[in-house]
Amino acid sequence: MKLTSRIHPKKSGLPPGSIVPIEMPKKEPVALWSFEFNENSCSESHPDDIDFAALKKATTISWLNIDGLSDAHLFERIGTELGIHNLTLEDIMTIDQFPKVEDHERYFYIVLKMIFWDDTENDLEAEQVSLLLLHDIVISIQEKPGDVFNPVRERLRRGVGRTRKEPADYLVYSLMDAIVDNYFNAMDRLGEEIEKMEDEVLEQPIPATSFKIHKLRTKVTMLRRSIWLLRDVVSTMLRSESDLIRPNINPYIRDLYDHTIKVIETLEIFRDTLSGLLDIYLSSVSNKMNEIMKVLTMISTVFIPLGFLAGIYGMNFKYMPELDQWWGYPALLGVMVLFVVAFLLFFKKKKWW
Amino acid sequence: MKLTSRIHPKKSGLPPGSIVPIEMPKKEPVALWSFEFNENSCSESHPDDIDFAALKKATTISWLNIDGLSDAHLFERIGTELGIHNLTLEDIMTIDQFPKVEDHERYFYIVLKMIFWDDTENDLEAEQVSLLLLHDIVISIQEKPGDVFNPVRERLRRGVGRTRKEPADYLVYSLMDAIVDNYFNAMDRLGEEIEKMEDEVLEQPIPATSFKIHKLRTKVTMLRRSIWLLRDVVSTMLRSESDLIRPNINPYIRDLYDHTIKVIETLEIFRDTLSGLLDIYLSSVSNKMNEIMKVLTMISTVFIPLGFLAGIYGMNFKYMPELDQWWGYPALLGVMVLFVVAFLLFFKKKKWW
Amino acid sequence: MKLTSRIHPKKSGLPPGSIVPIEMPKKEPVALWSFEFNENSCSESHPDDIDFAALKKATTISWLNIDGLSDAHLFERIGTELGIHNLTLEDIMTIDQFPKVEDHERYFYIVLKMIFWDDTENDLEAEQVSLLLLHDIVISIQEKPGDVFNPVRERLRRGVGRTRKEPADYLVYSLMDAIVDNYFNAMDRLGEEIEKMEDEVLEQPIPATSFKIHKLRTKVTMLRRSIWLLRDVVSTMLRSESDLIRPNINPYIRDLYDHTIKVIETLEIFRDTLSGLLDIYLSSVSNKMNEIMKVLTMISTVFIPLGFLAGIYGMNFKYMPELDQWWGYPALLGVMVLFVVAFLLFFKKKKWW
Amino acid sequence: MKLTSRIHPKKSGLPPGSIVPIEMPKKEPVALWSFEFNENSCSESHPDDIDFAALKKATTISWLNIDGLSDAHLFERIGTELGIHNLTLEDIMTIDQFPKVEDHERYFYIVLKMIFWDDTENDLEAEQVSLLLLHDIVISIQEKPGDVFNPVRERLRRGVGRTRKEPADYLVYSLMDAIVDNYFNAMDRLGEEIEKMEDEVLEQPIPATSFKIHKLRTKVTMLRRSIWLLRDVVSTMLRSESDLIRPNINPYIRDLYDHTIKVIETLEIFRDTLSGLLDIYLSSVSNKMNEIMKVLTMISTVFIPLGFLAGIYGMNFKYMPELDQWWGYPALLGVMVLFVVAFLLFFKKKKWW
Amino acid sequence: MKLTSRIHPKKSGLPPGSIVPIEMPKKEPVALWSFEFNENSCSESHPDDIDFAALKKATTISWLNIDGLSDAHLFERIGTELGIHNLTLEDIMTIDQFPKVEDHERYFYIVLKMIFWDDTENDLEAEQVSLLLLHDIVISIQEKPGDVFNPVRERLRRGVGRTRKEPADYLVYSLMDAIVDNYFNAMDRLGEEIEKMEDEVLEQPIPATSFKIHKLRTKVTMLRRSIWLLRDVVSTMLRSESDLIRPNINPYIRDLYDHTIKVIETLEIFRDTLSGLLDIYLSSVSNKMNEIMKVLTMISTVFIPLGFLAGIYGMNFKYMPELDQWWGYPALLGVMVLFVVAFLLFFKKKKWW
After folding, report:
1. Do D102 and D175 fall into the same domain?
2. Cα–Cα distance between A324 and A331 in angstroms, integer?
């Protein structure tokens, strides 16, 4: 999630609704995964292409998962065959969308962010997931192949839960629930990261730490804004009056809403904690400085006056009576020791150590 | 209330509405406590199991208190016998809920946080309480056995107050009132803790103090968010049009609402105070530094020039006329004393001590 | 207004609506003050007890002022005789209420805070005032005897203004107006206190100052929250559709509302100013440090090199040609003077003095 | 605009609606300025007193401007003759009003603040302007004689613009527009003041600067709050359904509204800039300190070790072989020079200069 | 975007609705560019003047682009011929408008800001664009000639996209879309600028850097406010019930709305990042100071005590037995080396290097 990445669709000048394939560094082919299921049966396949005729005739519910956005032609055909608006197709293929839901009467279009912690980069990553809900057809589009939907697939195969017994809106809910459930994993890792930073700040406050805190806070801020919009998506679905989303699944969507709130609340606390950490960092640095200054001051305060005393008796005046006494040297040493003791008591009283 | 604890239900992948028993470190059995009462009588028992047949036939009001969440089977039976939705049962058994109220027509589901100050941990602890309000049946579910409902039990036994004279909604109000009343105890302890910190900050500002303030502020922030949601719960109940909550008890719920507001206002002020304390801490550290620097500067400013003077007359030039005069040494000492006095006056004027 | 004081009603466990007398350190008896007035007459008395029969029969408007909350029995009788709800009585006797208004159909219950600056404590104090508005009867209850209502009394006695010509709602307005008018006195004193602090911060920034600012800011924050609630009280009265508050006095209540807004605006600015003062304080401390460091640096920068030069010619090498020249000593002194002048010019250029 | 000035009307205790003349330091008489105009004619006069009979009979539109608030009797007569409510008259004579508009059916009462930069005080000043809009009569009341309405007068005299062709509401709009137009002048001066401060902060950060920033920020805050209320005034007028303000002038009032928004936006940015400046100030002070410390450290780091070396060879040990060699002195000097060069390179590498 | 520039229209005193030509430093003539198109044809010309008769008779859609605001007479004629309100004309010619949309029934007036990064000034620049949408006529007015509309022109010429097939409202949408698309370029440059600053802050924190951050933050704040208003413009258009904006283009305007949201979110994150950077800057400065102080303290702590030791043996006491021993000098040197080693270990333990 670099600051400047993905802001600009790099296509200014094209007419609205233009479908531009996402240029992937390694041109991977688009992968399809198809489920046809009803309460009694569930068939699964990895077709090379979409058979729209079969799709439209099917009496079962069809779930089509597409991994990869490089095949613009495929999406154009989806648009033509299933009646998807060009602007929707453009949104699907633009991977910097904010979460939103659009009711196009014939279909619902939902964009979400999948969040996960990338351990190799030690960073929070986001990936875009688009969901199209038509009557009896659900199409999910991911940027890259991923395993976040595996629990849903497993439940479909084994027929546990209600997914196979309910219409397509329950499947969409299940997919969204899988994505939001996955947020909690990212939150857990983020929380660990923050606790690691709290230790670092107290023990060894270096500028790099404050910068790491700053970076993490920016990331949490970005995430928070994205989840706020997700909350709006879910609450829009709650209030929807479309036929595609039945009132029956409202308790489930409300549950999803509660989870979203929980993510937001957690992020708010993370943000607050990170802001506080910067203050702690600053105060740690100041304390470090205080300690350094104490050492300097104690050493200087003890030895500069002593050095002056020694300097006095290093002078070459002809008439310095003390110099000629046998007790002069030990007496001066004694005075110096007394002096040191007095200062140590003074520092003790000031609680400097 | 650790940052990462309890964020993740650790059950991603299960179908929604799954009821997973809370794994307790020490597998304590679930404890039941049952009250059957009406205006004239009140019987109390500790049954081993719930007799749903008797419960449903009873003409009195039944209050069933369940301590512990380890018995998933019990909650499944409650679901089947009393018609509680699976998602509600899942919420009851997931101990990281935010406060909320749900009107399921047949019943009300209310989740609350019980807050208390744990003196052994010196920390604020939260525990989840679920309340189910059915017609003539109230079920309260706590994480651990606790004594916060004792005043209500005592009033039921002795028949004081209106609890025994009113329908089940008044009992639910009484339980919520007992929980919110208990907040004030936690607020009192928190206030004391903050005042202790104010003293610490002024007297001995060490990094650990700023970290403690930071931690306490995070906790107050978390609490505040939780109570804001509680406020919504209470105001939802105020506006409820269900039969289960009669308009008659609105004055009582409004009173509860006022108490919630008072807790929120107190927490806002605590948060503000703790934020302010971090500033005070920083300024205390800076002042400490100033004091250290003053000592260093005063000592250096007095003795470095004096040392230089002594150095001058320690030089070995052949022709230094002052060295040969009998008054050279005392004169120099006199000059030095004058010098010291001048600097002390200078520091005095600068108000450095 | 201590942080922990008055948070906890110290009565958890009692049934709602319990009336507990306020424990006063010195058990002062409750003082009554009664006015019976209409357009033509006004009689005033200090009865020992309330004659409810006479009160209910009276054709004039009755204003009863009660100073002190120690007599629980009195309030119980008020409840029984005038039909005041138990929760209202409990609120009257709990002196940590936030401002609110409650429309109980038969009567209005208004709680307000009286604010005054306590010159002996040098602190802002708040006192609770409860107002009960019944048809033709107004009861005002204060914690302690006070003179804030004197102007209203005086106007009643002398018959100036409209108080005697209008029904009871105008009297309640007059009492609230007297309380809010009194806020401006407290605001004035607070403003003076803040201006005093501004001087202190610039002249002698010590940690105690920052702590005083912090304390004052906490107080202003508490006050602000209280007045925000007062604003709600007034605007609720404006929108009231009860018979007890006639539309005729709306212009007066709107005037009261404007005054409340003025208090809030003033407090916002005070809060802003106090927050700013903490920043100024920190910058003052830093500047002080800069000044101290400048003194140290100037002294060290001048005398450490000079001391080194003197040290050079204090060495005991056999062959140091300079030592044997008659001009060695004055030349060195000359060099030293030049050196000092050069540094002074350098400091001048750096604008260090 | 002192913090404590004008908060308190200094009249607590008086019955609401009391009209107290503003005590002016120099008792200037109230000045009247009267315009009678319609599309064809415009007559102007400076009457000594108001001729209410003529005023009420006039078929032209009458604009009466009153400078000064010292003549309470005059306002009482305005109240009686034109039917102005006592509370309105009290507001007119209380010069610490916040902007507001009141629809009294028979008339509109509008209070505004006139803002100008006082170059002699180098400060932002505010003055209160009250506008009364009756049918065919407009009365404007200013604290002091001023020239802000001159453009409107000029347009009336010369008959340019629409003022003479439209009813009285257009005149009120013109007067408000003249006042808001004048804000931009004050904004310009304020912006210059802030840019001056930006230079000061970077070049010579002294505590007085931070205090000036703080003061200016407080003033901008006060102003902003006042203009927010002005915005409400204008938007209330937009939504007004009174006969006194015709829908025809809505485009003009919307234009006024846009100007108000522009003032608010500018003030928000000023406030943000001033807050930022305080941070810059603090960082400037820290940098200054860093520079001072660098000088001290460089001098000390070079000369303290050198002084130590010189001290070594100033010792009086009998057997110090180096002292007797002819090359001892120049060799030591050479070592010292190398030492200095080494440190200079070290500082160079650390980028300390 | 200087702070004081463009605040003041410099025309106070003129009647509202006055049309004042913008004084350009170099009096460039106004340039016209005209498109007449329908689905089948598209003709383009650069007329010297507007032929209003032809314009009004045309059966095609006419798009007239005007570069430059210096010709007041031209705008007056547009007002007369096309029925544009004087206040609209005044707004078009005042280049400091905030974004707004006005529905004048006969026409829509839309003001927008064009944002671009000026590489020569290294600064963000804004330019005002006014759009007038009449039935079949669109007039766009820019401050200076620019190429932001080129993509739209190109699409018109080549007939790609829907622009030529749709009524005038789609053209207005296309122009607004071109402007907002262009924002992303400015955002990209701004993001790069901020990342450059992040590096600067960590590597070489000088006051100029903090000032640059401050300036950039002010600019982002100004921009954010402007885009917020743009968002309102777009959402007003979405809700418009005028005939001039058909419901058919709502999906497109909603797409525009999404883009605006994306710009706002990006700016919020930029602002947050810049605020954080100031904190990082301050902590970098403090760390720098710590490092300087460490050098000073290490040097002083080692050499001041050593210097004192040397001073001791430079004293001229008669009886100092150590001086006469042959091992005195090497022994002292040995002690000194041990001393240095001890301190180095101490610093090592304190992790000072």
Report:
1. yes
2. 12
Number of C-alpha atoms within 13 angstroms, CB side, residue A37? 27
Which segment of A58-67, A319-328, C126-135, D224-233 scores lowest on mean pLDDT?
A319-328
Q: Domain ends where: A256, A284, A312?
A: A284
Q: Is residue C19, in this structure, part of any structural domain at all? A: no
Distance from CA of B186 to the nearest CA of C (A): 9
Q: What is the pLDDT of residues D118-128, one digit of tens each?
A: 878 777 888 89
Please check whether residues D160 and D258 belong to one and the same domain: yes
Q: Give the gap in angstroms from C-alpha C139 to the nearest C-alpha of chain D.
A: 20
Chains that touch B (3 or more CB pairs under 8 A): A, C
Are B314 and B215 in the same domain?
Answer: no
C268 bridge partner residues: none
As a whole number of angstroms, the distance between CA D288 and CA D303 comes to 23
pLDDT over threshold 80, residue C22: no
Is E342 in the D-facing interface, judged by CB distances under 8 Å?
Answer: no
Both A96 and A224 in one domain: the answer is: yes
Instruction: Note whether B204 contacts A: Cβ–Cβ < 8 A.
Output: yes
CB < 8 Å from C in window 267-326 of B? 268-270, 272-273, 276-277, 279-280, 282-284, 286-287, 289-290, 293-294, 296-297, 300-301, 304-305, 307-308, 311-312, 314-320
Name every residue whose Cβ is closer than 8 Å to that of residue E28 and which is 6 or more positions away in sequence: E68, E70
A308: domain CATH number is 1.20.58.340
Strands C137-142 and D42-45: unpaired
* Facing D218 at nearest CB: one of C272, C307, C318: C272
The model's confidence at residue C8, banded by pLDDT at 50, 70 and 90, is: very low
C74 plus C165 within the same structural domain: yes
Q: Is residue C26 assigned to a domain? A: no
Distance of CA C327 to the CA centre of its chain: 75
Task: Quote the tokens at residue E275.
Answer: 């605020």
Q: What is the ipTM of this complex?
A: 0.71
Q: Closest Cα partner for B212 from A212, A193, A198? A: A198
Q: Is the dihedral of CA B165, B167, B172, B176 positive or negative?
A: negative
Residue B202 with chain C: CB contacts under 8 Å: 207-208, 211
Q: What is the extent of the structural domain holding A327?
A: 286-349
Domain boundary residue, one of B284, B300, B325: B284
The Cβ of residue B77 has, within 10 Å, a number of other Cβ atoms equal to 14
Is residue C323 pLDDT above 90, yes or no? no
The per-residue DSSP string of C265-333 comes to: HHHHHHHHHHHHHHHHHHHHHHHHHHHHHHHHHHHHHHHHHHHHHHHHTT---S--HHHHSTTHHHHHH
Tokens linked to E68: 């430059």
* Cα–Cα distance measured from residue E33 to residue E62, given in angstroms and rounded to the nearest whole number: 11
Grouping H, G, I as helix, E, B as strand and the rest as coil, residue B135 is coil
Are C251 and C327 in a shared domain?
no
**Spatial CA neighbour of C233 closest among C120, C129, C325:** C129
Residue A65 lies in a domain: yes
User: Would you call A308 and B306 a contact, using CB atoms and an 8 Å cutoff?
Assistant: yes
**Residue-level pLDDT at E19:** 65
Same domain flag for C251 and C335: no
| Distance from C-alpha of C17 to C-alpha of C11, rounded to nearest angstrom | 11
**What is the C-alpha to C-alpha distance for residues B110 and B132, in angstroms, rounded to an integer?**
6
Query: Of B204-213, C268-277, D150-159, E16-25, which gets the smallest average pLDDT?
Result: E16-25
Residue A96 sits in the same domain as residue A143? yes
In a domain, E324, yes or no: yes
Number of domains in chain A: 2
Residue E124's domain is classified under what CATH number?
3.30.460.20
0.80 cut: is pTM over it? no
% pLDDT > 70, chain B: 92
Answer positive or negative: Cα dihedral of E231, E234, E238, E239.
Answer: positive
